[in-house]
Amino acid sequence: xxxxxxxxxxxxxxxxxxxLQQWMQDSFRAGSHLALKHPFFPYAPMIIYxxxxxxxxxxxxxxxxxxxxxxxLNPELIENWLVGGPLFxxxxxxxLLLIERLKEANKIERQHHQAQxxxxxxxxxxxxxxxxxxETAAYSLSLMAASESSADRxxxxxxxxxxxxxxxxxx
Length: 171
Prior knowledge:
Blueprint: H1 5-27, H2 34-37, H3 43-54, H4 56-73, H5 78-144, H6 148-170
Helix pairs in contact: 1-3, 1-4, 3-4, 3-5, 4-5, 5-6
Protein backbone atom coordinates (compact mmCIF):
# COMPACT_ATOMS: atom_id res chain seq x y z
CA UNK A 1 0.00 0.00 0.00
CA UNK A 2 2.86 2.38 0.84
CA UNK A 3 4.32 2.02 -2.67
CA UNK A 4 0.93 2.69 -4.26
CA UNK A 5 0.29 5.82 -2.18
CA UNK A 6 2.09 8.27 -4.54
CA UNK A 7 0.17 6.93 -7.54
CA UNK A 8 -3.15 7.17 -5.68
CA UNK A 9 -2.39 10.72 -4.55
CA UNK A 10 -1.39 11.60 -8.12
CA UNK A 11 -4.65 10.30 -9.54
CA UNK A 12 -6.65 12.16 -6.90
CA UNK A 13 -4.74 15.36 -7.63
CA UNK A 14 -5.38 14.97 -11.37
CA UNK A 15 -9.11 14.46 -10.72
CA UNK A 16 -9.11 17.54 -8.48
CA UNK A 17 -7.43 19.57 -11.22
CA UNK A 18 -9.97 18.29 -13.74
CA UNK A 19 -12.78 19.40 -11.44
CA LEU A 20 -11.13 22.80 -11.05
CA GLN A 21 -10.73 23.10 -14.79
CA GLN A 22 -14.39 22.20 -15.41
CA TRP A 23 -15.52 24.71 -12.79
CA MET A 24 -13.36 27.41 -14.35
CA GLN A 25 -14.69 26.66 -17.81
CA ASP A 26 -18.30 26.70 -16.62
CA SER A 27 -17.83 29.87 -14.60
CA PHE A 28 -16.04 31.87 -17.27
CA ARG A 29 -17.54 30.50 -20.47
CA ALA A 30 -18.51 33.99 -21.68
CA GLY A 31 -15.04 35.59 -21.72
CA SER A 32 -11.64 34.52 -22.93
CA HIS A 33 -10.41 33.14 -19.65
CA LEU A 34 -7.22 31.26 -18.90
CA ALA A 35 -9.03 27.94 -18.48
CA LEU A 36 -10.54 28.24 -21.95
CA LYS A 37 -7.34 29.26 -23.71
CA HIS A 38 -5.03 26.88 -21.83
CA PRO A 39 -6.77 23.65 -20.84
CA PHE A 40 -3.54 22.40 -19.23
CA PHE A 41 -3.35 25.32 -16.80
CA PRO A 42 -4.31 23.73 -13.47
CA TYR A 43 -2.29 20.58 -14.14
CA ALA A 44 1.26 21.89 -14.60
CA PRO A 45 1.83 23.14 -11.02
CA MET A 46 0.31 19.94 -9.64
CA ILE A 47 2.57 17.77 -11.81
CA ILE A 48 5.67 19.73 -10.82
CA TYR A 49 4.73 19.34 -7.15
CA UNK A 50 4.09 15.61 -7.52
CA UNK A 51 7.47 15.23 -9.22
CA UNK A 52 9.12 17.14 -6.41
CA UNK A 53 7.36 15.19 -3.69
CA UNK A 54 7.41 11.66 -5.13
CA UNK A 55 10.09 11.66 -7.82
CA UNK A 56 10.50 11.76 -11.56
CA UNK A 57 8.62 8.54 -12.33
CA UNK A 58 5.45 9.72 -10.57
CA UNK A 59 5.72 13.11 -12.28
CA UNK A 60 6.01 11.49 -15.71
CA UNK A 61 3.12 9.18 -14.85
CA UNK A 62 1.07 12.26 -13.92
CA UNK A 63 1.89 13.90 -17.27
CA UNK A 64 0.81 10.80 -19.21
CA UNK A 65 -2.33 10.37 -17.13
CA UNK A 66 -3.28 14.03 -17.52
CA UNK A 67 -2.82 13.96 -21.30
CA UNK A 68 -4.77 10.75 -21.68
CA UNK A 69 -7.60 11.98 -19.49
CA UNK A 70 -7.87 15.42 -21.08
CA UNK A 71 -7.77 14.18 -24.65
CA UNK A 72 -10.27 11.45 -23.85
CA LEU A 73 -12.69 13.76 -22.01
CA ASN A 74 -12.41 16.86 -24.22
CA PRO A 75 -11.85 15.75 -27.84
CA GLU A 76 -13.40 19.02 -29.15
CA LEU A 77 -10.41 20.99 -27.86
CA ILE A 78 -7.85 18.81 -29.61
CA GLU A 79 -6.99 21.47 -32.22
CA ASN A 80 -5.84 23.78 -29.39
CA TRP A 81 -3.80 20.96 -27.94
CA LEU A 82 -1.68 20.36 -31.01
CA VAL A 83 0.48 23.26 -29.90
CA GLY A 84 -0.40 23.41 -26.23
CA GLY A 85 -0.06 19.67 -25.60
CA PRO A 86 3.58 19.29 -26.64
CA LEU A 87 4.42 22.58 -24.94
CA PHE A 88 2.75 21.30 -21.76
CA UNK A 89 4.69 18.03 -21.91
CA UNK A 90 8.01 19.76 -22.57
CA UNK A 91 7.48 22.34 -19.82
CA UNK A 92 6.45 19.78 -17.22
CA UNK A 93 9.22 17.35 -18.19
CA UNK A 94 11.87 20.07 -18.02
CA UNK A 95 10.50 21.17 -14.64
CA LEU A 96 10.66 17.60 -13.36
CA LEU A 97 14.20 17.12 -14.66
CA LEU A 98 15.28 20.39 -13.07
CA ILE A 99 13.83 19.30 -9.75
CA GLU A 100 15.69 15.97 -10.00
CA ARG A 101 18.97 17.76 -10.71
CA LEU A 102 18.43 20.12 -7.78
CA LYS A 103 17.68 17.19 -5.47
CA GLU A 104 20.84 15.42 -6.67
CA ALA A 105 22.95 18.56 -6.15
CA ASN A 106 21.49 18.99 -2.67
CA LYS A 107 22.32 15.36 -1.84
CA ILE A 108 25.91 15.81 -3.06
CA GLU A 109 26.24 19.00 -1.03
CA ARG A 110 25.04 17.20 2.11
CA GLN A 111 27.58 14.42 1.47
CA HIS A 112 30.38 16.96 1.05
CA HIS A 113 29.35 18.74 4.24
CA GLN A 114 29.31 15.42 6.12
CA ALA A 115 32.77 14.55 4.76
CA GLN A 116 34.10 17.95 5.79
CA UNK A 117 32.63 17.61 9.28
CA UNK A 118 34.14 14.14 9.66
CA UNK A 119 37.52 15.37 8.47
CA UNK A 120 37.52 18.29 10.90
CA UNK A 121 36.58 15.99 13.80
CA UNK A 122 39.37 13.56 12.86
CA UNK A 123 41.86 16.41 12.48
CA UNK A 124 40.94 17.86 15.88
CA UNK A 125 41.44 14.43 17.46
CA UNK A 126 44.79 13.93 15.75
CA UNK A 127 45.99 17.33 16.96
CA UNK A 128 44.58 16.93 20.47
CA UNK A 129 46.36 13.61 21.23
CA UNK A 130 49.99 14.77 20.64
CA UNK A 131 49.31 18.11 22.33
CA UNK A 132 48.16 16.37 25.50
CA UNK A 133 51.32 14.26 25.51
CA UNK A 134 53.54 17.32 24.94
CA GLU A 135 51.76 19.27 27.64
CA THR A 136 52.22 16.47 30.17
CA ALA A 137 55.91 16.11 29.25
CA ALA A 138 56.52 19.87 29.54
CA TYR A 139 54.81 19.96 32.93
CA SER A 140 56.88 17.02 34.19
CA LEU A 141 60.12 18.60 32.95
CA SER A 142 59.26 21.92 34.57
CA LEU A 143 58.83 20.13 37.91
CA MET A 144 62.24 18.48 37.53
CA ALA A 145 64.08 21.56 36.23
CA ALA A 146 67.36 22.18 38.07
CA SER A 147 67.77 25.84 37.20
CA GLU A 148 65.43 28.78 36.89
CA SER A 149 66.24 29.22 33.17
CA SER A 150 65.25 25.59 32.48
CA ALA A 151 61.99 26.10 34.35
CA ASP A 152 61.31 29.28 32.32
CA ARG A 153 61.93 27.41 29.07
CA UNK A 154 59.54 24.66 30.17
CA UNK A 155 56.90 27.24 31.15
CA UNK A 156 57.31 28.89 27.73
CA UNK A 157 56.89 25.51 26.09
CA UNK A 158 53.76 24.87 28.18
CA UNK A 159 52.34 28.27 27.20
CA UNK A 160 53.05 27.56 23.53
CA UNK A 161 51.24 24.24 23.77
CA UNK A 162 48.38 25.96 25.58
CA UNK A 163 48.22 28.63 22.85
CA UNK A 164 48.01 25.92 20.16
CA UNK A 165 45.27 24.19 22.17
CA UNK A 166 43.32 27.45 22.39
CA UNK A 167 43.59 28.03 18.64
CA UNK A 168 42.27 24.50 18.01
CA UNK A 169 39.35 24.96 20.42
CA UNK A 170 38.35 28.37 18.96
CA UNK A 171 37.59 26.87 15.53
